[in-house]
Amino acid sequence: MNLSSQKVAALVAKLRSKSSASWDDVIAQLVEIGSPAIRPLLSALKDPDYKVRTIAATVLGRIHAVDAIEGLIEALGDSSKSVQEAAAEALARIGTPAVGRLLDMLISKDQTARRWAAEALGNIGDESVAQQLVLRLNDPDVEVQHAVVTALGDLKSERAIRPLIAVLDSDNVDLARAAAEALGKIKATIAVEPLVHALSSTSDDVRRTAAASLIELGTDAVPALIECLDSDNYLARRYAAEVLGEIGDPRAHEALARRLQDENDRVVGYAAIALGKIGRPASAKLLARLLKSPHASVRGAATEGLAYLATREAAEHLIKMLKDPDWVIRMTAARGLGAAKVRKAIPPLMKALKDEEWSVRLHAVIALGAIGVRKDAADALLKALDDPKEMVRAAAADALATLGAKSAIPRLEQMSKHDPAPEAAQAAQAALATLRGET
After folding, report:
1. Half-sphere exposure of residue 146, counting CA atoms within 13 Å on the CB side?
2. Residue 53 domain flag
3. Considering the domain boundaries, does residue 305 fall inside one?
4. Which domain holds residue 194?
5. Residue 285, class by beta-carbon neighbours within 10 Å (0-12 exposed, 13-18 middle, 19+ buried)?
6. Which pLDDT tens digit goes with each residue over 196-235?
7. Is the pTM of this model over 0.70?
8. What is the pLDDT of residue 380?
9. Nearest-10 crossing angle of helices 312-321, 327-340
10. Is 159 exposed, middle or buried (0-12, 13-18, 19+ CB in 10 A)?
11. Nearest-CA neighbor of 147 among 93, 84, 71, 90?
């Protein structure tokens, strides 16, 4: 046994007696040894201890040990999931030289090995394997199908689009969801219509994933989503509205405005938020009409939409919502007023510092700091340093620093030394440093 082999053997022996917290150092030493470590590590892949096998596979991948491909392929079927995962990651690191054997494993009788082989192929990113992966979409094992679908998404292969669209209609929710996610990664416009159709799925997981993929597709999806707003399925309308808001394309404004009269409150709510995100000033009047709704969810969505608009007109309505019976709506209004930064909001925000709900007080404090007018606000924020909630006190200290209120220094000094909450005391210290020009 040569010196390198002896050192590797000694390091492998250490793994049996070390905790996982110490593995990094051993791995680093083995990687540094490099190719002379391959043979001993291949032997370690058969060690009785799964920890040793896992680290052996990890190191073989990090040193790109082409000679270890066969051993790592065998480890894909290891009894330990940790070893399986490490072997798959190692093969992905080795890359192109491992592709041939990984493709062979796609027809292995071992379903676990087939699944990990598919994952490794996806992580290698060699699009030339896409056709072979497509052929395995009919694998009898659902987990293998799932791994293949995920791999095809990772490869971003256009060859996979139509097969994945077919999987999107699968009765198996996990497969359909995986296909929706994969299509989002590929970002092909041909997938827009199928993904919009998936917004009507009976599975919430599939609907959510399809929505996320449509957001990835962006403006290419807008025409189909606008059409979907007239769907008979309220869930499809609700998700279409949400996605259009995330995309933020002005073309959707009129269609979303019509949905403010939808028979379903959830659709109305998502349409209201979407209009705010799109940001046309004219939306303020439309959203204001919803603020008298008897349903808190509708009022809340309209308030959120106005908060996103953050215009002077929107602020006028948000000021009124600081008196809403629902605290979430009052909190949203305070947040929106901070974004709008209008002086007129200062007096009502000062009153909101006495709200019974601490979250409302917190956002009122933040808003006063964001508006940036020291007069009047500073005195009110000084009183907020005595708030019973530590998060509000901390935010008040931050706001006073932002306003440059040096009159707050004596009180902040006291707070930094005596506040029982570490978070508040630290905020006071940071505010003092800012006000004294120490940062």
Report:
1. 12
2. no
3. no
4. 156-255
5. exposed
6. 999 999 999 999 999 999 999 999 999 999 999 999 999 9
7. yes
8. 94
9. 150
10. middle
11. 84
